[in-house]
Automatic annotation (TrEMBL):
<feature type="domain" description="Cytochrome b5 heme-binding">
    <location>
        <begin position="33"/>
        <end position="109"/>
    </location>
</feature>
<dbReference type="InterPro" id="IPR001199">
    <property type="entry name" value="Cyt_B5-like_heme/steroid-bd"/>
</dbReference>
<feature type="region of interest" description="Disordered">
    <location>
        <begin position="1"/>
        <end position="29"/>
    </location>
</feature>
<dbReference type="GO" id="GO:0020037">
    <property type="term" value="F:heme binding"/>
</dbReference>
<keyword id="KW-0472">Membrane</keyword>
<dbReference type="InterPro" id="IPR050668">
    <property type="entry name" value="Cytochrome_b5"/>
</dbReference>
<dbReference type="InterPro" id="IPR036400">
    <property type="entry name" value="Cyt_B5-like_heme/steroid_sf"/>
</dbReference>
<dbReference type="Pfam" id="PF00173">
    <property type="entry name" value="Cyt-b5"/>
</dbReference>
<dbReference type="GO" id="GO:0046872">
    <property type="term" value="F:metal ion binding"/>
</dbReference>
<keyword id="KW-0812">Transmembrane</keyword>
<keyword id="KW-0249">Electron transport</keyword>
<protein>
    <recommendedName>
        <fullName>Cytochrome b5 heme-binding domain-containing protein</fullName>
    </recommendedName>
</protein>
<dbReference type="GO" id="GO:0016020">
    <property type="term" value="C:membrane"/>
</dbReference>
<comment type="similarity">
    <text>Belongs to the cytochrome b5 family.</text>
</comment>
<keyword id="KW-0349">Heme</keyword>
<feature type="compositionally biased region" description="Polar residues">
    <location>
        <begin position="8"/>
        <end position="23"/>
    </location>
</feature>
<keyword id="KW-0479">Metal-binding</keyword>
Length: 154
């Protein structure tokens, strides 16, 4: 009934060479890790076949739908897609995060990952701000010095 059969992925068993990548159903196996494209994942969006992406990892949560404390509806809304944001928005517990492992089936293909924003170089401003701060300090000490001198003269 339109149900996808995903058990036909073949692992080479060598598990060593990164060049052991094979392609089957659009899925790649590399060093034992299966890589799925968004296109592969998208079709697993039914209640009897539910996959999710969370933090670039792919989970088959079909057997978890009924157990989910937050209900199956919310999971089905995300089925076949990236649920990272909604998963994080709920603020799931550490227990919930550990539960993910048992449903892990592979990783999102590198080409389909969102580009991570390169970290901003923080010290662009520090050079600017350091001088006035030092200058301020120097001025302060100068005043203290003057005060001491005038105190001494008295
Ligand atoms: C396989 C992935 C997920 C697992 C293993 C999981 C697990 C859990 C667990 C164990 C809880 C109980 C509270 C906690 O321990 O944090 C929970 C609650 C909940 N989850 Fe998930 N969850 C998953 C995905 C999602 C997603 C994708 C959504 C949103 C679309 C979601 C929405 C919720 C909501 C709304 C609650 C109820 C929070 C409450 O009533 O306090 N969950 N989930």
């Amino acid at each position: 009934m339109g149900e996808e059969i995903n058990d036909n992925l073949i692992t080479t068993g060598s598990g060593t060479a990164s060049d052991s990548s094979i392609e089957g159903n659009g899925d790649e196996v590399d060093g034992g890790v299966k890589y799925y494209t968004l296109e592969d994942i998208r079709v697993h969006n039914m209640s009897n076949d539910t996959w999710l992406i969370i933090h670039n990892k792919v989970y088959d949560i079909t057997g978890f739908l009924e157990e989910h404390p937050g209900g199956e509806e919310v999971l089905l809304e995300q089925a076949g897609a990236d649920a990272t944001e909604s998963f994080e928005d709920v603020g799931h517990s550490t227990d919930a995060r550990e539960m993910l492992q048992q449903y892990f089936i592979g990783e999102l293909h590198m080409d389909d990952r969102k580009k991570e924003k390169p970290k901003e170089v923080q010290d662009t401003n520090s050079g600017e701000s350091r001088f006035p701060r030092d200058y301020g300090l120097r001025r302060k000490w100068k005043f203290v010095g003057l005060d001491l001198v005038s105190f001494h003269q008295c």
